[in-house]
Amino acid sequence: MQRLHRRAALMAALWVLAAAGSAQGHEYKLGSLVIHHPWSAPVAANAEVAAGYMEIINTGQSDDRLVAATADISTACQIHEMKMAGGVMTMNEMADGLVIPAGGRVVLAPGGYHIMLMGVKKPPPLKAKFGGTLTFARAGTVDITYFVQESR
Amino acid sequence: MKQKTNLSLVLVAAAAIIAAALVTFGLSGSGTSGKLTAEFGGPFRLASSNGGVVDSATLKGKPYAVYFGFTHCPEVCPTTMAEMTTAYEKLGDAARDFQTFFITVDPERDTVEFLHDYLMTYDKRFVGLIPTMAELPVIARNFRAVYEKVPTSDGSYTMNHTASVYLFDGDGKLVATLGYGEPEKARMAKLRKLLGVPNP
Predict the structure, then answer these.
(1) Containing H/E element for B29?
(2) Contacts of B69 in chain A (CB under 8 A)
(3) Which of A88, A117, A118, A121 to mutate to test the interface with B (most CBs of B within 10 A)?
(4) Residue A98's beta-bridge partner residues?
(5) Predicted confidence band of residue B199 (pLDDT cuts 50, 70, 90)
(6) Is the dihedral of CA B170, B172, B175, B178 positive or negative?
(7) Cβ contact, residue pair A86, B163, below 8 Å
(8) Are B122 and A44 in contact (CB under 8 A)?
(9) In this structure, are strands A88-93 and A140-148 parallel, antiparallel, or unpaired?
C-alpha cells in the first residue's frame, strides 16, 4: 500500500517535471552547454532579415564563446547586440563572438543579443520550425531547431 | 576602427539626448510656448509606398503616427509594426482613418514597391514614406530623429535609428511618443487619448 503511494507520488512528480519542461520549451546539450528553446518572431512576407533568440547556459568550469551560426532559411548569420539609448536603437556585430561565462547564462532576446538571420528568401510563418546550427569556440557545433512564435 | 565606432555611438547618443530634451521641452511647455512643438516634424511632402506623394497639409484634422525604420531591421521595426497592428485591432473603428507613416532611413534598399509589400503584411493603414538621399537628413532633423549606417562583416550594412513612434494630433502637433518596450497598457492609453476613445 505504502509502496503504491510512493509510486503514485513519484509518477506525479515526474508528470509535473515533464509538464514544466514542455511549457518552457525544447533544449539541446553540447558538452557543458545547454541551449534552451531557440525561437524566432514572425516577420513581414517579403522581409529579408529575421532574428533568432534562445538562452544559453554554461554548466562548466570554463568560459565558452558563441562564434558562428547558420540557419536553413538564411544565407548568412551574424551575432548582434542591440541596445536602446535615448530612444535610439543601435546594433553592433559581435565580431569576436558572444562569451558564455563559466557557470553563467546568456539570454538572446528582443532588446538585447540576437542571431541576425540575413538573406532570408521565404520568411517562415507563425508556428513553423526551421533548422540551424550554433558553433562554440570550445564545445563545437550543435544542430538546433527554431520555433516561430509571437514575441510576447 | 573600434574607437571610431565608439565615437560615432557617442555622437548618436548625444544627438538622442538632445532630441529627447527637445521633445520633453516641447511637450512640457504650456500651450503658449508651443512654437517648437508646432514645428516638430512638419510640414513634409514625401514619396508614398502607395504611389504618389503624401503631403502633411492633407492630414489636417486627422491624427497620425510617424515611425523611422527600415525593412532590413531584424527586431525593433518588426516588433513595433506587430505592436501597432495589435493596437489597430484593439482600437477598432476609432482608428479607421488613423495612419502610421513608416519613414525609411534606408531609401537605397527600401523602394516604393518593396516597402509597400512589407507594410501590407501588417495593415493597410501603414503608409511608407521614401525620402530621397537628399531629403532624408532634412526630414530626420525635423523629427529630431537620428540614423546611422553601420557596415557589417559580409560587406552589407545595417542601420541604427531612433525607434520611438511619434503621435501627432489633428493639428499636426506632436502630443506623445511611444517608446520601444513600453508596456502595452501605456501604449494603448496614449493611442486612445489621441483618438478620443475612452480608456476602459
Answers:
(1) none
(2) none
(3) A88
(4) A66
(5) confident
(6) positive
(7) no
(8) yes
(9) unpaired
C-alpha–C-alpha distance, residues B85 and A5, integer Å? 52
What band does B34 get if pLDDT is binned at 50, 70 and 90? very low
Query: Would you call A114 and B122 a contact, using CB atoms and an 8 Å cutoff?
Result: no
Length of chain A: 152
Report d(CA B184, CA B86) in Å as an integer: 10
Mean pLDDT rounded to a whole number for chain B: 85
Which residues in B lie closer than 8 A to residue A53 (C-beta atoms)? none
Q: Which residue of B has its CA nearest to A125?
A: B121
Q: How confident is the model at residue B25 (pLDDT cuts 50, 70, 90)?
A: very low
pLDDT score recorded for residue A23? 44
Residue A14 lies in a domain: no
The beta-carbon neighbor of B74 closest among A46, A51, A87 is: A51
Nearest chain A alpha carbon to B177 = A87
Tell me, yes or no, whether A21 lies in a domain: no
Question: Domains in chain A: how many in total?
Answer: 1
Ranges of chain A with pLDDT below 70: 1-24, 152
pLDDT of the residue at B22: 44
Residue A111 lies in a domain: yes
Say if A13 falls within a structural domain. Answer: no
B2-195: CATH class? alpha beta
Query: What mean pLDDT do residues B79-99 have?
Result: 96
CB-CB neighbors (< 8 A) of A95 in chain B: 153
For residue B60, give how far its alpha carbon lies from the nearest alpha carbon of chain A (Å).
27
Record: contact A114-B180, CB cut-off 8 A: no
